[in-house]
Every structure is written in structure tokens, then in C-alpha cells.
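Module 6 notes. Inverse folding takes a fixed backbone as the condition and produces residue identities as the prediction. Think of it as a translation problem where the source language is geometry and the target language is the twenty amino acids. Below is one complete input and output pair. Work through it position by position during the lab.
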């Protein structure tokens, strides 16, 4: 009986696919989890942005948040955007994160009656943060270099306000 049970266990182990064996599966899952986490931490912006503005702030609950806002000014061929391109590349963007956070808290997005039941609190925070981000960044531009030269902007900020 012992020989039969032992032989059956060997056949079951041999018949089990490699990916279903615990000594193989757990390390593979661990490597995948690390790869996904690393991918989430390293966000690459599309194209070649003229500047990536670091956005760092601390929420009222004490949570530290860091993300980025990339600006693409004009097109490579457009020379009329050169003054704005030079400004965004050379400007000191330090301290912009807390200002964006305070703007988002002071001026939260108010959903329209049609949106009221559809938007979650996280959605409203994200919209509030994005609006504040655009306001605070564009307020930094000197007169005459209005954001007409900005052709694209992208952010990896989640809009966390709580």
C-alpha cells in the first residue's frame, strides 16, 4: 500500500504542469509583482517634453505625494513658441506642489446635476487637482507668454487630496 501511494504521488507530481508547482509558481509571482510595482513607479512621458515639473506635496492627513507634470511647448518646427519653451525649461518650479494642493482644496470641482450620481469622491478630487494644476502652472507664465504655445501637457498625478 505504501509503494502504491508513493508511486501515485510521483505520477501526480510528474503530471502537474511546471507552472502549477509551488516551488516554481511562488518565485515567478514574486518577480511579476516586483516588475509591476517598478513599472508603476517609473512613468515615462510621451514624446520629448520640454520640461517635467516635479509635483510634491503633503496632504492634510500627512500622506506625502510625488508625481510629475510634463509640458510640450509648440512643435519642434515652431519658432514662435521658443520664448515659452525657454521659460518653462529655465523656470524654478520648486514649491509648486503645495500651491497646487491648496488650490485644489480651496476650489473643489462641483459636479453638475447630471454628474452628481456618476462621479465618485476620487473622481471629484482628480478633477479638482487637474484644474488646480493647470491654473497654478499657467499662472507662472509671464505676461505675453500665455499658454497658447503649449501644445500638450500630461500628468501622472492621481489627484490625491485626502
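Target side of the pair, the amino acids:
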Amino acid at each position: 500500500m505504501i509503494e502504491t501511494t508513493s508511486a501515485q504521488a510521483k505520477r501526480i507530481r510528474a503530471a502537474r504542469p511546471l507552472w502549477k508547482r509551488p516551488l516554481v509558481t511562488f518565485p515567478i509571482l514574486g518577480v511579476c509583482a516586483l516588475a509591476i510595482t517598478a513599472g508603476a513607479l517609473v512613468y515615462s512621458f510621451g514624446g520629448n517634453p520640454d520640461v517635467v515639473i516635479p509635483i510634491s506635496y503633503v496632504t492634510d492627513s500627512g500622506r506625502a505625494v510625488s508625481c510629475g507634470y510634463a509640458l510640450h511647448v509648440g512643435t519642434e518646427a515652431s519658432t514662435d513658441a521658443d520664448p515659452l519653451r525657454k521659460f518653462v525649461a529655465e523656470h524654478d518650479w520648486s514649491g509648486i506642489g503645495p500651491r497646487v494642493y491648496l488650490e485644489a482644496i480651496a476650489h473643489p470641482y462641483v459636479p453638475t446635476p447630471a454628474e452628481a450620481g456618476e462621479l465618485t469622491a476620487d473622481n471629484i478630487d482628480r478633477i479638482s487637482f487637474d484644474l488646480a494644476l493647470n491654473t497654478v502652472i499657467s499662472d507662472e507664465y509671464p505676461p505675453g507668454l500665455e499658454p497658447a504655445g503649449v501644445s500638450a501637457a500630461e500628468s501622472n498625478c492621481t489627484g490625491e487630496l485626502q
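Reference fact for the lab report: The chain has a mean pLDDT of 77.
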